[in-house]
């Protein structure tokens, strides 16, 4: 029974020190970041913006809009 208690306590201690180290590392990286949006999210946002370039909103009533896809051959 005592061996099991020591193993669990040792494992909990390892998890605690691992999490403290990880939180410290992430805090340092975030503190050094100069932009408002992190790099992976920025790449995803840029991709979504480029894919949404062909969609055109049309106002309907009040705050409602309808969004439609504008094809290449219909442009003037």
Task: Describe the 3D structure.
The protein is 58% helix and 13% strand. It is an alpha+beta fold. The protein has 2 domains: 1-34; 37-76, no CATH class. It has a two-stranded antiparallel sheet. A hairpin with a 5-residue loop joins β1 (55-59) and β2 (65-69).
Average pLDDT value? 81
Largest sheet: 2 strands, antiparallel
Q: How many structural domains are formed by the residues?
A: 2
Termini separation comes to 81 Å
Q: What is the ordering of alpha helices and beta strands? A: HHEE
**How large is the share of residues in beta strands?**
5-15%
Count of helices?
A: 2
What sort of overall outline do the alpha carbons produce when their principal axes are compared?
A: elongated
Task: For the structure shown, list the relevant keywords.
2 domains; alpha+beta; 76 residues; single chain; two-stranded antiparallel sheet; 2 strands
Please provide a brief summary of the model.
By secondary structure, this protein is an alpha+beta fold.
């Amino acid at each position: 029974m005592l061996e099991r208690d020591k193993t669990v306590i040792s494992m909990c201690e390892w998890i605690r020190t691992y999490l403290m180290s990880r939180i410290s590392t992430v805090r340092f990286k975030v503190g050094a970041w100069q932009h408002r949006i992190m790099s992976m999210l920025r790449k995803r946002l840029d991709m979504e913006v480029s894919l949404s370039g062909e969609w055109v909103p049309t106002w309907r009533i009040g705050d409602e809009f309808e969004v439609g896809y504008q094809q290449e051959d219909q442009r003037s």
